[in-house]
Amino acid sequence: MPFDGVVLSALKKELILELVDGKVERIYQPNQFEVNLYVYKLGKTKKLIISANPSLPRIYITERQKKNPEVAPNFCMILRKNLLGARLVGIYQQGLERILQIEFETKSELGDTEVKYLIFEMMGRHSNIFLVDSNYKIIDAIRRLSFEDSPRPILPGVKYTLPPVLTKKNPIEVSFDEFISFFKSSNKSPENILTDNLSGISKQFANEVILRAQVFEKSLENKDTIKRIFDSLKELLYCIVEKGEILPTLYTEKGNVVDFYVIDLKCFSSFPKKHFSNLNLCIDEYYFKKEQHTVFIEKRQHLQKIIEQNVKKLSQKYDQNIQKIQEAKNAEVYRKYGDLILANLYQLRETNEDFVEVIDYYSEDLSTMKIPLEKDKDLKQNAERYYKLYNKLKKAEEYAKNEIAEIEKEIEFLQSLEALLEKSQEIEDLLSIEEELEKEGYIKTQVENVGQQKKKENQKSKPHHFISSDGFDIYVGRNNLQNDFLTIRFASSHDIWLHTQKIPGSHVIIRTNNKEVPQTTLVEAALLASYFSKAKHSTKVPVDYTFVKYVKKPPKSKPGFVIYDNFKTIIVDSPENIDNFNKVE
Asked: Which residue ranges does UniProt annotate as crossing the membrane (predicted)?
């Protein structure tokens, strides 16, 4: 993440234009690392995000809103006490270090003007936000450190000092003699030499300097080559930091954000990119999409875990019922014992033994057999006991068989959701799957207000829509609710329905418009059916297809479950991706 000193320098200029001479209206702390300042200036309120998140420290202006906690954390309350109503009078950077200092003018209880500073250190896992007074005494920090935890304690009342790691040279001020000495004292790559010795320089910026200097050697000794790197560094810094010539650029890969920078980087020339009119907009979109992707991954993992846990429970329940069926095999033996005791009753005498010997009328040679007895019961009661055991096991067997049938349906349903989950690309897809899990009782349903319900309805995704090479519309369900909608409500009786044979996956519909469907369209639809199934990237995947009129949904069946007949099967190799398919956005 290249939020380096160069980026911060360019951003500082935008923040000065947007915020200086503004008044602090509101302050929130949506999480343990982030502070939001609402600054009013020239009829507009700007929201400044300052985040000391260890993995993604950042600062920028945004119009996006977050839910704030009902009870403000202590640091937020201290900021409100000291900065609400204050005038923001200056924003400063420590050289090209990733340290930004925001100056405020406030009024004391006696009406005197006081100066206070909000200092933001972007130091990776050591990032922090400090509130200090005019003498740089710490009022508080978002992350405190005691004397035992750090050689640089961060506590109220302690004098603020710069981080001890600030030993690198300012690249704007460094001379060529100093610069060349970096290379003489190191055998590292040119990129690492720059980042090790110069402040505010990220790996991306260092790579850009080397690329623009057209240096491709890994080890440098030639003075002219080092001079080319030096000149490239100075020229880039002059254009960005001094002249403010920037072109904020966002880089993506397969729809996900990869990086951003203040200029268009040559090292990212192969990535899709988007330019912005100002740096704040670029940073805002980067972190918004980054957060969206993180939320997407976390939710998908959460739903995956729920599905796996329920499949595991059902599998255990399945095994228990199989065991009951195995035990029920003894049922006929118990019935036989009861029959033989009663059949021999006329010639048997009550006994104190724990068995009785009877004639086995079921054997061809009428041999005798011993039947175990319970001593506290007479012969007739023992016979009744065996009949009860027989009836109990037979009922348990019947119940177990019914249970197994239901368990198989549930596992099939969950596996279908798992297949859909693997192919989900948007948060709306996950919300639909989550809704299915809620409806089927796998997730406890939370009581929602009308606003939440409407928001959820607006977030529902639509089925995938493709156009075949022959011009036919092909629709693919993203979840089981969409599968039901496509097959039962959307498709007409003469449309073609496709699904992987005995493999969980999406329902696929070809809109025929009462026309004959060419083989090419049928194959394309089958490829989509295999791709959006558990058979992803497999070879020789069987895909069944039939007219929609031959597809039925049994009453009270799980979402996405159907039965069908009069079908044919086509064998396809599931594609690695569907980039070549004509998808309708």
From this structure: none
CA 222 – CA 485 distance, rounded (Å): 70
Whole-angstrom Cα distance, residue 181 to residue 175?
10
What does the pLDDT look like over 119-137, one tens digit per residue? 999 988 899 999 999 999 9
User: Contacts for 353-361 with beta carbons within 8 Å, 24 or more apart?
Assistant: 356/382
Locate all alpha helices (DSSP H) within 239-378, ordered by sequence.
Answer: 279-327, 331-343
**CA 159 to chain CA mean position, Å:** 42
Q: DSSP assignment, residue 407? A: H
Tokens of 549: 């009129």
Q: Which helix (H) or strand (E) is 554 found in, with range?
A: none
Tokens of 160: 């603020």
DSSP 8-state secondary structure symbol assigned to residue 242 = I
- Examine the pLDDT at 340 and tell me if it is beyond 80: yes
Distance CA(69)–CA(318), nearest Å, equals 44
pLDDT tens, residue by residue, 368-423:
888 899 888 888 998 999 999 999 999 999 999 999 999 998 998 898 888 888 88
CA-CA distance, 68 to 27, in Å (whole number)?
Answer: 10
User: What are the tens digits of pLDDT across the range 433-444?
Assistant: 898 888 888 888
Nearest to 134 by CA among 118, 156, 109, 116: 116
Residue 150: its H or E element: none
Integer Cα distance of 146 and 149 in angstroms: 5
Name the H helices within 38-117. Answer: 74-83
